Amino acid sequence: MKTIIGNLNKQCMTACIFAMTALALPSVSLQPAQANTQQDTARYYNSVYKYCDAKKIAAAWNLNIDGAKALIGNKLGGPNVVGAKAIIDSAIRSASNTRCTYQDTEVTYSDAQALAGYWGRSVSAAKSKVVDIASDDGTQAVYSIIALARSNSGGGSNTTVSDASCQQLRGSRSPGTQQKTTVTFTNSSNQTRLIDWVDFNGKPVRYQTLQPGQSYQQSTYVSHVWRVTDNAGNCIQMSAARNSNDSVNIRR
After folding, report:
1. Could you give the CA distance from residue 174 to residue 152 in angstroms, rounded to a whole number?
2. When comparing pLDDT for 32 and 98, which is higher?
3. Do 89 and 141 fall into the same domain?
4. Which of 66, 128, 219, 229 has a 20 to 30 A CA-CA distance from 72?
């Protein structure tokens, strides 16, 4: 009998201690913090991403369009915006089976006209190419080319890109195009010039150093972005490979 009573007392003491401890602990919510959907959606609309991108994010992360917009904005609101963009861009490219319409890209008719002149094709064909690029790589690949098309509005070979293009094309990256072409770089300036390819993440990759008067031919792909800098790494001009064999005359 004493043994039974002793065991009961131990059980009671254990239960009482557990109850008292539970009362003493602060309340902790196990629910994840909820995103501010309205604020996140507003951040999406103020970002570089378009409806096509939200559509592909929705497919990649199994969300509806509104949820995708809010999630894009939520990630962009974090402390590491560069890392967030890398995650978003990777997810966009992963949803290659999700195709966008021309309207989804939010590219204007004026932009389509600029691209048509840049690519040497009709506006209708330019729109089709916009859809293909956006569906494969997201709209930022398209808008990078639009900026190049407008900065190179003179068209043709031996086009000198103005210094303004470096500011306009900041953040550009080469799209995942597969059509091969070549670009011939000629250094007509009196300074050493460095030639960088801008990779798929917007990072410069050194390819060549040209002394005054030198030139060289570079194999590349249509619409891939190239940058000319001085020895200090300051951007001199930028260009993108065209459909036919292209040439860039470096005058500055």
Report:
1. 16
2. 98
3. no
4. 128
Tokens of 251: 């005058």
pLDDT in tens, 5-29: 444 444 444 444 334 433 333 333 2
Q: How many domains does the chain have?
A: 2
- Report the distance separating Cα 129 and Cα 244, nearest Å: 16
Q: Residue 31 carries which DSSP code?
A: S
What CA–CA distance (Å, rounded) separates 154 from 2? 102
Structural domain including 48 reads 38-97
Q: Residues of 57-91 as b/e, b for ≥16 C-beta within 10 angstroms? A: bbbbeebeeebbbbbbbbbbeeeeeeebbeebbeb
Residue type, position 18, single letter: F
The one-letter code for the residue type at 17 is I
In the numeric block, the tokens 């040209």 are attached to 210
Full-model pTM: 0.53
CB-based burial, 210-243: b 16+ in 10 Å, e otherwise: beeeeeeebebebbbbbbbbeeeeebbbbbbbbe
Q: CA 5 to CA 23: how far, in whole Å?
A: 27
From the list 234, 156, 146, the residue with the least C-alpha distance to 196 is 234
Query: Which candidate, 137, 140, 163, places its Cα nearest to that of 151?
Result: 163
Q: How confident is the model at residue 157 (pLDDT cuts 50, 70, 90)?
A: very low
Q: For the chain, how far is it from start to end, CA to CA, in angstroms?
A: 102
Residue 210 has pLDDT above 50, yes or no: yes
Same domain flag for 72 and 114 = no
Q: Is 107 exposed, middle or buried (0-12, 13-18, 19+ CB in 10 A)?
A: buried
